[in-house]
Amino acid sequence: xxxxxxxxxxxxxxxxxxxxxxxxxxxxxxxxxxxxxxxxxxxxxxxxxxxxxxxxxxxxxxxxxxxxxxxxxxxxxxxxxxxxxxxxxxxxxxxxxxxxxxxxxxxxxxxxxxxxxxxxxxxxxxxxxxxxxxxxxxxxxxxxxxxxxxxxxxxxxxxxxxxxxxxxxxxxxxxxxxxxxxxxxxxxxxxxxxxxxxxxxxxxxxxxxxxxxxxxxxxxxxxxxxxx
Length: 228
What we know:
- By secondary structure, this protein is α/β, with parallel strands linked by helices.
- The chain is 43% helix and 11% strand.
- Strands 3-2-4-1-5 form a five-stranded mixed sheet, with helices on both faces.
């Protein structure tokens, strides 16, 4: 297994539980819409978040990681905030306390006005564009590369603020696919001049890597360890 001496923390990712937009088959990707309370978790999603929290707690115990070393960093969207809150409750961590941190850079990828509040059946159109050119933006929306930029900022912020922590990143399908793609790729970088996260991310910021982010897709409520 590739080592990660350039990272100060361990990372898990968690896609939000099944949301009301998921149930309705709607794309809700703008910050304005995504933070509306009406778009939080569906009841099934609350159950998924609780199960994910229990699984995360089990993994913490198996790795002898004390709860005081846990940090939950989450997107400000209602569905991710709701998920993070449920997980914090399972771990008995105060959600308003210093161990839980909202980060706008972890928000959903904005797919643009041509997709917003329309059927999720349109997702394949975006992913086909990503595979063809991850640097091309859907009209009015974010490209894969745009999301990479803010995820790199989020990672840098977490690495600066925390050390020796187990960080749970609670976000959305596309951002977490892209984040996993980045982290899996940076672990393989062997160039001697790439001794930090930022330089490694720039090295892997290429078409043949970013265009494959769908291979790291997560189900709603799915927990995955990405950096140990």
